[in-house]
Design a protein that fits this description.
The structure holds 2 protein chains of 2 kinds. Chain A is an alpha/beta fold. Chain A has a domain at about 5-255 and about 455-484: Alpha-Beta Complex (Amidase signature (AS) enzymes). Chain A contains 15 helices and 11 strands. In chain A, the strands form 2 sheets. An 8-stranded mixed beta sheet of chain A has the order 4-6-5-10-11-9-7-8, sandwiched between helices. In chain A, strands 1-3-2 form a 3-stranded mixed beta sheet, with helices on both faces. The N and C termini of chain A lie close together (about 10 Å). By secondary structure, chain B is mostly helical. Chain B has a domain at about 5-35. Chain B has a two-stranded antiparallel ribbon with strand order 1-2. The longest helix of chain B is centred in the N-terminal third of the chain and has 10 residues, at about 5-10. The relative contact order of chain B is 0.07. The chains are: A alpha/beta, B mainly alpha. Chains A and B meet through helix 9, helix 10, helix 11, helix 12 and helix 13 of A and helix 1, helix 2 and helix 3 of B.
Chain lengths: ~475, ~100
């Protein structure tokens, strides 16, 4: 049961060949048996899940179900869940029990999904390896000595080890696509403004967007149908019609123009990864798509400006953690400043403190123009590159990550090196467009991810291409041995 | 970046950094070094891009109550003591 896709499970539920209770119990059991070694979940919500599953079975019996009724899912632990701890991977929020649900959580609940639990992540979504969690590193099921990618590592691993059929994530600089690639699954980040961010703990507000991890593009389309849409509670939510993403999955990709950015396929790219990506491109070419070299000349500036813009916004967003209204508070503060300074020093981990300090510095008087404004100008150049590219091609194809999953601890000593993990994903976030990572092969038994990026609000297009690819290949069906 | 600069930034960010741990933050300079390469990029006549929602202005809504009073629930999760619906904090001014 655990290896089936949502599309398959949905049919089995509706035809009453399985019940949501059985399905939910299966996944809860798998989470319990693997979580000790993989550390993908921070909280398991078993009692509530079984309660919800019972209701789902009733709805199905009464014929009042939707396509997702009774499907178990997991939420990254930065989606606020009413009455359930939402830690954001941080000691700062270890005691935080939100009194409300995020809009996405409500939407998925209304669609009939069952919440299995909350997944581990890099603290405040800052990291590319999941080593920055207060709750410990998540392990990659393909090699438990390797990282699963980050920051949504727990969500990615929950799919890779088949502990859940779908899991939510957020992607500020690659935090859905990079762990999807390194864990061998499908992960999509929709366009900025496509999904409400109300109730999602904020990191960098001009870049954050939530999305979904699944086994297949088809499942991602089903999930996005329930997640997307305008929300008056989020001022960055866009009032735009949401198409049925499943409707166009089977469209032919004959004549589709695929762009390959020459800056990404340079001699610095690992040749084994490059080979896998090109094999993937050839599969699409065989189906009638055409390949074109394109240029994104400013994309190499993505990482430098991301590490100005994201920390700047984070330093402002994380100012709310003051030890007063919620979160961690230090003992016996001498005065108000001491309360702030010690609560924050004790509550935040190293990486978060680093980024707050960088952000504070680049926003301070005398540096603001040279760093922050300059970075925002270059951000526009990067966006302009994409505008030009999408005049010539329909989608852009590239590797998702420059490496496969690396060993735990191997990049912790050199921050800049770690930051380069997101070199192919960050430009998408800066422009605000959409991207998906799908499995396209293995190098030394570790999964490689192929990234497709589409223009603003072109999620349906990249899901279509990804689905067509998955009809021709079975990389997305591979499961690490111990978790079959 | 020297220790005095780090201390100054940490104070602006209201994060206590002790003398024992300050060395950990010396690499902030390395990360800013990464950003040096942007200084030479020609951005004359380029407008800064602060977010991806181009041509979008701040949406306004009717001035009406849409949320119920949740003061009790919100204060119930506070690590601070509360009194008469207010949060109690240490004194702002020294005596």
């Amino acid at each position: 049961m655990h290896t089936k896709t949502i599309a398959e499970l949905s049919k089995l539920l509706k035809s009453k060949k399985i019940s949501s209770i059985e399905l939910t119990k299966t996944f809860i059991e798998r989470i319990k048996s693997f979580n000790g070694s993989l550390n993908a979940f921070i909280t398991i919500t078993e009692a509530q899940a079984l309660e919800e599953a019972k209701k789902a079975d009733q709805l199905i019996a009464e014929g009042k179900h939707s396509v997702l009724t009774g499907i178990p899912i997991a939420h990254k632990d930065l989606f606020c869940t009413n009455g359930i701890k939402t830690s954001c991977g941080s000691k700062m929020l270890d005691n935080f029990i939100p009194p409300y649900d995020a809009t996405v959580v409500i939407k998925l609940k209304n669609a009939g999904t069952i919440m299995l639990g909350k997944t581990n992540m890099d603290e405040f979504a800052m990291g590319s390896s999941n080593e920055h969690s207060y709750y410990g590193t998540v392990k990659n099921p393909w090699d438990v000595e390797a990282i699963p990618g980050g920051s949504s590592g727990g969500s990615a691993v929950s799919i890779a080890a088949r502990m859940a059929p779908a899991a939510t994530g957020t992607d500020t600089g690659g935090s859905i696509r990079q762990p999807a690639a390194l864990s061998g699954i499908t992960g999509i980040r929709p366009s900025y403004g496509r999904i409400s961010r109300f109730g999602i703990v904020a990191f960098a507000s001009s870049l954050d967007q939530c999305g979904i991890f699944t086994q297949t593009a088809e499942d991602a389309a089903m999930m996005l149908n329930a997640m997307c849409g305008f929300d008056p509670k989020d001022s960055t939510s866009v009032e735009k019609e949401v198409p049925d993403f499943t409707k166009t999955l089977n469209d032919s990709i004959k004549g589709l123009r695929i762009g390959l950015p020459k800056e990404f396929f340079n001699n610095k790219l690992d040749s084994e990864i490059s080979d896998k990506i090109m094999e993937g491109a050839k599969v699409l070419e065989k189906m009638g798509a055409t390949l074109h070299e394109i240029s994104l000349p400013n994309s190499k500036l993505g990482i430098p400006i991301y590490y100005i813009i994201a920390p700047a916004e984070a330093s402002a967003n994380l100012a709310r953690y003051d030890g007063i209204r919620f979160g961690h508070r230090c003992d016996d503060p001498k005065n108000l400043i001491d309360l702030y300074e010690r609560s924050r020093a004790e509550g935040f981990g190293d990486e978060v403190k680093h980024r707050i300090l960088i952000g504070t510095h680049v926003l301070s008087a005398g540096y603001y123009d040279a760093y922050y404004i300059k970075a925002q100008k270059i951000r526009r150049l990067i966006k302009n590159d994409y505008d030009e590219a999408y005049k010539k091609v329909d989608v852009i194809l590239s590797p998702t990550s420059p490496t496969t999953a690396f060993k735990i601890g191997s990049k912790m000593k050199n921050r800049v090196n770690m930051y380069l993990s997101d070199i192919f994903t960050v430009p998408t976030n800066l422009a605000g467009i959409t991207g998906i990572s799908i499995p396209c092969g293995f190098v030394n038994d570790l999964p490689v991810g192929l990234q497709l990026t589409g223009n603003y609000f072109e999620e349906a297009k990249i899901l279509n291409v990804a689905h067509q690819y998955q009809l021709q290949t079975d990389w997305h069906k591979q499961i690490p041995k111990k978790y079959k | 970046m020297n220790h005095d600069e780090i201390r100054k930034i940490a104070h602006m960010a209201r994060i206590q950094i002790t003398d024992d741990e300050i060395e950990k933050y010396e690499d902030i300079g390395d990360i800013l070094e990464l950003a040096k390469e942007i200084a030479d990029i020609d951005t004359a006549n380029i407008e800064p891009m602060s977010h991806p929602l181009l041509n979008m202005s701040q949406r306004l809504r009717k001035d009406e109550v849409t949320e119920p009073d949740q003061r009790k629930q919100l204060q119930a999760i506070s690590p601070s003591e509360t009194e008469a619906g207010l949060y109690l904090v240490p004194g702002v001014f020294e005596e």
